[in-house]
Amino acid sequence: MEQKKNIIITDTLSGIGTEAYKGYLGHALCLEGRCHIMFNGKGLEMKRGDLLIVRQGRLVQSVKADSSFRVTMIYIAAPFIEV
């Protein structure tokens, strides 16, 4: 059985809602620019300083970032943070 990493840090939202991060909680911190996200039928906009926490990535329907958008994305395995 393959060992799952508890924490994964990336600089893109491209993996959110994919099978690769199933079972992870996603934490996205916008560093610069803007990004429009369709989440469970609701439009959201991220701008510098905004933090988005996603428990169910499958509810992310689309992500459209402007050319200056930069993000730090942290995926944390759900069992790792359970108390």
Structure, described:
This protein is mainly beta and 83 residues long. The protein contains 1 helix and 7 strands. It has a 4-stranded antiparallel beta sheet. Strands 4-3-6 form a 3-stranded antiparallel beta sheet, with no helix packed on it. The longest helix is centred in the last third of the chain and has 4 residues, at 78-81. The chain is globular and about 35 Å long. The relative contact order is 0.36.
**SSE order, one letter for each helix or strand:** EEEEEEEH
Estimate the global geometry from the Cα principal axes. Answer: globular
Strand content: over 45%
Query: How many helices in DSSP terms?
Result: 1
Pairing-aware structural class of the strands and helices?
mainly beta
CA radius of gyration? 13 Å
Q: Tell me, rounded to a whole number, the average pLDDT.
A: 90
Strand tally is 7
Sheet with most strands: strand arrangement: 1-7-2-5
Largest sheet: 4 strands, antiparallel
Which residues sit in consecutive blocks of at least 5 with pLDDT less than 50?
none
User: What is the distance, rounded to the nearest whole angstrom, between the alpha carbons of the first and last residues?
Assistant: 25 Å
Summarize the amount of helix as a percent range: under 10%
